[in-house]
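Appendix C: a fully annotated inverse folding record. The material below is reproduced so that readers can follow the format used throughout the book. The structure is listed first as tokens, followed by the designed sequence.
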């Protein structure tokens, strides 16, 4: 029963994301990330780059994307 509740909660969040005006042109970032087996940093890069033109804080979103890209670069360099 608890697992079903978690699934419902995730589906509600995804539906809310999809309904957001800055994701109306296609697939939402969480669905894209899941389909492409992306990790947290990769997901956030996609999320912030996808929405920067449509949300009220374009520079802030691009800076966040860059922060996550720097994290990902550091991880790749460490391997």
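Designed amino acids, in order:
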């Amino acid at each position: 029963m608890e697992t079903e509740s978690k699934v419902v909660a995730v589906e509600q969040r995804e539906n809310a994301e999809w309904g957001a005006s800055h994701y109306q042109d296609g697939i939402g970032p969480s669905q894209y990330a899941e389909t492409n087996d992306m990790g947290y940093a990769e997901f956030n890069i996609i999320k912030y780059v996808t929405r920067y033109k449509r949300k009220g804080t374009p520079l802030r979103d691009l800076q966040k994307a860059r922060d996550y890209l720097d994290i990902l670069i550091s991880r790749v360099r460490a391997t």
